Amino acid sequence: MRGAPNMPSQIRVTFRFKILLSVLIVVTTVVSLITFTMARMFHADKVAYVEDLVSLVSVHAASEANLRLSAYQDQLVTAGRVQDASNILGERRDEALWNLFTRTRGLVALRVFEDGKMVRLLLDSLATNAAGVSRASFLTTIARYTIPFDSIEVGTLYVRNSALSSLLPLSTIAVRIPRAAGRPPLMVVGTVDLNRSIALGRSSRAFDVFLVDVDGRIVSHGDARRTSSRERLAWLPPLGPGSLAMVKETERGGKPMISGIANVGIGGLRAGAEIPKSVAYFALRSLLINLIFLALGLLVAAAVVSLIWATQMTRSLSQLTHAAQAIGQGNFDVQVAVPSRDEMGQLAGSFNQMASELHGRDRALKEAQAQLIQSEKMAAFGQLGAGIAHEVKNPLAGIQGMIQLTSRSLSADSPLLETFAILEKETKRCRTIIDNLLKFARQENLEPEPIALEEVVADTKAILHHELSLHKITLETAIPKNLPLIRGSPNQIQQVLMNLILNAEQAMESRGHGTVEVKAAQRDDGFVDLSVQDDGPGIPRAVQARIFEPFFTTKPAGKGTGLGLAVTFGIMRDHGGAIHVQSEEGRGTKFILRFRMAGSHPATDAHPTKTPDPEAPTPGDERAA
Ligand SMILES: Nc1ncnc2c1ncn2[C@@H]1O[C@H](COP(=O)(O)OP(=O)(O)O)[C@@H](O)[C@H]1O
Ligand SMILES: [Mg+2]
């Protein structure tokens, strides 16, 4: 797929943004679901409650109005009876009729008609005067509201709005009183202020409670002006006598209302209650607004929290990225902070572990590489040395023979004798070097046999005893009696021992005293360790790296050839063993020779140099060859 990376500027959506977005989506969904469900439930509940309440208030108002109006009806009937009673004399009749005014609240005028003609008029002048209306104008005005006497039936009450002025929001009520046969019925008409007499639900501040007549005109209302203006409610539903109450959504002055209407059951009147929707659903609205604010707050909080969280998380990720890049460049020392105990923390932890493991492997690899280079170098030296030795060995033998022959033919007092002696000695030295080189390059055949290290050590000690005592060097040996036999050539092992002990002696001879310890110990991996330790000056680190190289020496010319340890190395290699060095400057040097036990199988190629020996004493650095 070559196309993908070449696509024109793809938008890079960061991890942080993705987290933020998903958190916001989830929070928004959850919050809006909760808000929506709550609002719906609350709305349904509240609507039912408000409708119930409106209907209840209207029913209650209706029953109150019913009580009042039946009382009016009774008073009017009583008034008719009093007027009609023949046994009551004029003055007492007047008194009885006037008494009605005190018993009937809000009654302003009382008229009695017979055959369409007014036969009696009583008027509460106090009320008309208080309203600033003269008796005459009051009478002419109320006379204008004609009453359909014929349609009023016995036992029913006629009620109509007949307002005079804003101060007198009056209504007309009337009853028919039947009389004995042949006489026309009496019509008793009262003019009454129903606003004053019926205190419909005045205690409620939220509800408007009112009473309307058959025409739909308000006859009683908390706000008297609505009666005096003869306001007519257009929305009134036709209400059958069976239905007790109903609730409707209406409108007044552009404001939506919830209205309830109930039959009073007298005079065709109806009681109503209305409440503005804004008032009825105030709690619902404020709940909604609160919910919206809460939701917004939650959203902001979620955004902040998820941003912080995402930042933290991506910070760890970018740390990991940087660390991985550093490791890629070979810097294994990086460690990332473990931020928490969650998966991120686990990732950081395993990353750190991986880094340190890689570090370890890198170190091991480098060491192995160095060892490989070293042994390659040795092999090259060996080959080179063997070639040179071969070429030089025979001419050297010839030279030596010629020197011996020539010196023998010289007379005893010849001054050349001394020169020839030196020539012979130096040629011998050359031959020794050549022999050693050949030994290092494995030119000699090894005939391995089981040998006791104890004997080899004892022989070596005997040979070197004199030499060592000259320089006040003590040689201590500690070889366990039950040490198993090893495989090898006694001569070569003796040479190895001599090389090591003489090196130790040479290192300490300038000081004038010293100790060399030769110890042996059996290992449980089929090998035996033989160590040669001195308390001399030790070998500096840089020198340690090179001591096994052929011709490497720190000694003055003529004193050291630099072949001792190279030969030792070659012998140990040929024995299937190894040699290690541990040395610390100022504290001494210890060479450890590792031999294969006589009984053990040589094929097990457990080359000791490859596995660092944890039991080996480590006074300082350890070098193995
Ligand atoms: N026991 C020792 N103490 C200090 N230095 C030593 C010891 N053994 C070996 N060396 C160092 O290792 C070098 C190489 O030793 P070797 O191969 O025997 O060559 P040579 O003895 O001819 O110098 C020596 O020159 C010396 O610097
Ligand atoms: Mg030496």
TrEMBL record:
Catalytic activity, reaction form:
ATP + protein L-histidine = ADP + protein N-phospho-L-histidine
What positions does the domain Histidine kinase occupy?
A: 387-599
Looking up SMART domains in the UniProt record yields: HAMP, HATPase_c, HisKA
**Presence of keyword Membrane:** yes
Q: Which InterPro entries match?
A: HAMP_dom (IPR003660), HATPase_C_sf (IPR036890), HATPase_dom (IPR003594), His_kinase_dom (IPR005467), HisK_dim/P_dom (IPR003661), HisK_dim/P_sf (IPR036097), Sig_transdc_His_kin-like_C (IPR004358)
Q: What class of enzyme is it?
A: transferase
What is the name of this protein?
histidine kinase
Question: Where does this protein come from, organism-wise?
Answer: Eiseniibacteriota bacterium
